[in-house]
Known about the structure:
Helix 3 packs parallel to helix 5. The protein has helices at residues 36-45, 64-77, 97-105, 116-123, 127-138, 149-152, 197-206, and strands at residues 7-11, 19-20, 25-26, 54-57, 83-86, 108-111, 143-147, 157-161, 174-177, 185-188, 211-215, 219-224, 228-233, 237-241, 247-248, 261-262, 265-269, 274-276, 281-283. It has one domain (7-283): Class I glutamine amidotransferase (GATase) domain (Rossmann fold, 3-Layer(aba) Sandwich), CATH 3.40.50.880. The chain is an alpha/beta fold.
Amino acid sequence: MQFAKGKLIAIGGAEDKGTDLEKGEIHRNNLNFFELGILRRIVQESASGPLSRIEVITTASTIPYEVGDNYLNAFGKIGCTDIGVMHIRNRADTNNPDYLERIKACDVVMFSGGNQLRLSSTFGGTALFQNIMERYLNDGGFLIAGTSAGAMAMSNTMIYEGNAARAHLKSEVKITTGLGFMDNVIFDSHFEKRGRFVRLAQAVASNPACIGIGLGEDTAMLVTGGNKMEAIGSGLVMIIDGHEMLHSNIADIPDGNPISIENLKVHFCEHGNGYLLKERKFLMESGDGSVIKKQVKVE
């Protein structure tokens, strides 16, 4: 992929906005934003700050209207008034000319949480998605953000299913092609709370050219130039690097057997730490000369 001029913010999520793929449950009662500080950072990184046009895409969620209203309220709390919501439910909806014009005019696209497979299957190959991609690659003022499923779909290699309790067994982690804003990474969300370290480790062992990025809740990675990352928020981002992996049995064992991996490299990133993907280099500081130790939450 060519050098991207736009920015990405991949958020680990702090609330369910759709189906829990591990339990098959739909959650409707936990829609409060714990990540308002991260939403504020989205606004700060956008081209026009609070005056930016932000379009929220609720495709991943099974409760799109509730989720859309929640985003309108959340961004409103931090001074944004030019917010739109796109309830794109199927591939036919992507042909709506109004949506295409709004994508061309906005500063930020925000993908909500829910089911990442709904995002890849709805947008893949469409003119609307191609316009988003072209703006990300060529427009330095354009920002794409996504939370939970919206973050997991950002990479070319995407986890779409995998129960954390069985992730140590071969083929329990399901992988497909995501939206592809980034190559050679795999995002996972709700990382600490749902115990997904082994899930991401298996995904990386199966695709060692990729860097695994485990996003904790109320935590995000800001990506600039498609390469430089900065951890933001109050939690933890974990980096799993399989480039120097010495042994893996994953190609030789039957499905359902425990995997064996030697020499995975792991980095823990707090707010202010950074990481260079191409160089596979941990940065103590994100580049602004200081490591911020405490995240101030917005009430």
